[in-house]
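Morning - zinc ion inputs below, output right after.
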Amino acid sequence: MNMTRFTTLLIIFVVVLGSDISFSEPVKYLFGKQLVATDRPAQPYGSYARGCADGLVKLPETGATWQTMRLSRNRNWGHPNLVKTLTNLSKKAKEYGWNGLYFGDISQPRGGPMLSGHRSHQLGLDADIWLMPKLKFNYTIEEREKVLPQSMSKMNGAMVNNQWSKTHHKIIRAISKDDNVARIFIFPGAKVKMCRDEKGNRDWLRKVRPWWGHIYHFHVRINCPEGAEGCRSQFPPPSGDGCLEAEDWVKKIFNPPPLKRSRPKVQPRAEILLSDLPKACSEILTID
Ligand SMILES: [Zn+2]
C-alpha cells in the first residue's frame, strides 16, 4: 500500500472512530440512516454511482403541479438545480394538459448508496419521473405508498402501449432541451416512438438514451453544477440522435441473436465501502 492510500485510510479510520459509525457496515447502511441533509452549501462529491452530497434540499411532498410518491423512503432530496429543473418541468406538464407530474426517487438526504434499487442517484443529480399520465392527481400520503405506476411498454419494451401520448413526447422533449440535463433514460420502444414522431429539430433526441427497465418512469440526470470540482461528470452521449441504435435494440428484442441473452448476465453487486467513496463522504456522515 502506498503512503497516500495509507494516509487516506488512516484519516477515514480516525474520522469514523471519532463518531459512532461502524466501519464494517457496507456504506449503504450508513447513508440509509441519514434523516436530513447537511446544513452546508450544496456540493456533490464523486460520481453518479459512487458518491454523496452536501446541502441537498427536500423536494416538498406536494406542489401545485407535482406530487412526490413513496414518501416513506425519504429519497426526495436533490441538489437545488435538480429540484428547480423538476418543479419547472411539472409546470410545463400542466401547460401541456396534464395536471402535473408524479416524482419518484431522487436521492437520500446525504446521497450515497441506497439500501435497495438504483446504482446511481448518489449525488442528488438523478431523479425518476413517473410516466403515468394524468388520471387521479391528488393522492393522499397513504395512497402514494400503494398506488401502482403504469407501464408504457408493449412487447418487452420494444414498443409503447396505448397509454403513451403526445404529451409524453412533449414533456421528454422539454426536459431534454434543458441545458442542465445530461441524459434521460427510458425503454427502447419509447425512444424509437419519439424518433419516428419527431418532425422538427432532432438534436434533443441525443440525450434520450434507451435503457433496461424504465417502463414505469423515466430517469433524468443533470450535469455536475458549475464549479463543483469534486463532482465527476459522465462523458457526453455519442453524437447524433441515436435513433438507429434504438431501432437496432428493438430489433434484437423481437429477434434475439442466437446463443446470446437479451440482457447481460447480472453479476452480484460488490458492496460499496466507505473507503470506496471520496474522502468528503466520511465527513458528511459525521456532521450533526
Ligand atoms: Zn432512476
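Note: Residues 118, 121, 126, 128, 219 surround zinc ion (CB under 6 Å).

O.
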